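> @MW can you paste both from yesterday?
MW: sure, first one:
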Amino acid sequence: MADLAVYGGLFLVAFLAATVLPAQSEAGLAGLILSGHYPVALLVAVASLGNTLGALVNWLLGRGVERFSGRRWFPVKPAQLDRAARWYHRYGRWSLLLSWVPFLGDPLTVAAGALREPLASFLLLVAIAKTGRYLAVAALVLS
């Protein structure tokens, strides 16, 4: 039961880190890897899944950006969304490979929803980006 709580906690922190709430998932992942009690591959998979699904929330918010923009709880300021939309128009869906980048990634995922990126390509590219980041964290911790 304790293992379920650990994996659930990691999933939740990674999920929240990709949404409106500030969270630091890399530190949580690194700490669990350093503990040596859990398989690294499973930790990376759980964090990646949580963070990708958190980005999906942003995509869904982007789909309704006209209704939500300007609300205090909305995760992206208009200037951030405009900058992300310019990136998105310039580089297209491939810009989602930068969805892991702090301060740029969340607005990009909202812009992808607002600009009607298909869900399948969104999830594939974001999953690659998020998993790549967690693999890099794991490699750094293990080295």
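MW: second:
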Amino acid sequence: MSACRQAGVAMALAVASLLPLLPATAQAAPDAAVLNAARAAEPAVIRTLEEMVQIETGSQNVEGLNRLADLLQQRLQAMGARTERLKATRGPGGPIVKASFEGSGQRRLMLIAHMDTVYPAGTLATQPMRRDGNKLYGPGIADDKGGLAVILHALALLKEAGWKDYARLTVLFNPDEEIGSIGSGELIATLADEHDAVLSFEPTAAKAVVKQESLLLGAAGTATAEMVVKGRAAHAGAAPELGRNALIELSHQLLQTRDIAKGVPGAQLNWTGAKAGEVRNQIPESASAYADVRLTAPDAADKLQAALNQQVAQKLVPDTTTTVTLTVGRPPYKASEAGRAMAQHARGIYAELDGRPLALAPMTGGATDAGYAGRSGKAVVLESFGLAGYGYHARDEYIEVDSIVPRLYLASRLLMDLGAGKVALK
């Protein structure tokens, strides 16, 4: 998912604990044509993954992102899409790929995934692509080049079948999800509001970790807290008593606010960086720190800001001032009732594959662009249609090869059912 997380562990725990609570889904026969097409597409999906992973696309790597955008745009145009290359409004300047298909149906559908990874240029030199049994390794292969591949090949499969049961189908690939979608989030939110349903293609956790693939029903929003302390400079050797040590006060404030989010439902705060002082022999007159903040309740940001303001008023060093600024980023994602109903429908599709189970993870501490897509509540949004994998943002990231056919089948069949009106969106 995003720069904001190593979501696999949290998702794994959620999925593992949830499945027994969910009702069983009736099993129907698979759509033989779709299943056979998905099976036939597996080698091509692997080739696409290999081609994409060989293009390094860290969020700051504009050259690599443009190369990947070229590849994706060409693939989408070959399927008959009208494509646009847009520029992110903020950030490093990576491209956004938008593609539109015009159909003959009634519903407006949108598919989203991200092109960027967290890996710096040169990572392939020490983490080359390799296959070991059911695991295919490569930087960013699960998060989120697997999602890109599922979209491309599901659409190719459906085009080959002649499927056009939609009024408009929009595909959006952004270049900055791993840094908070700072230049694409508003576009995602705006476009999502023009559609009836949005499917997001972040990865699902590997079966080697959680036993069952899943869809995601909730993800935290993100924010950043910055604490700034103002004191007074003085000579650290000759007259330290004339100073007001901002570093000492910062330390005091960090300690007394470290657990403050525990009293705010739907909030989590962790101080992760600090800075103070420029030279050894001067009492520092300023100090600052920043925190990673996660939000899962609509009013959590305001309540956390109020709690921080009240707490930092309690000083240790006199004549210092402390301010805390909370800047909200990506909104939280919570599947609506219609989204949950769509997830149950997806479970039925998965069960067509010899009763294959599909878990529904209630929440992850990570953050995803589903938060932007679902911000207004106008579109029905569901997350994690990408490939099963693990090791996101770490060494030896991988996907499970045996998830390719089921995830292609799921995405294709769900799009078909959405177009046919078999999934309620109200």
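> thanks! The chain has twelve helices and 21 strands.
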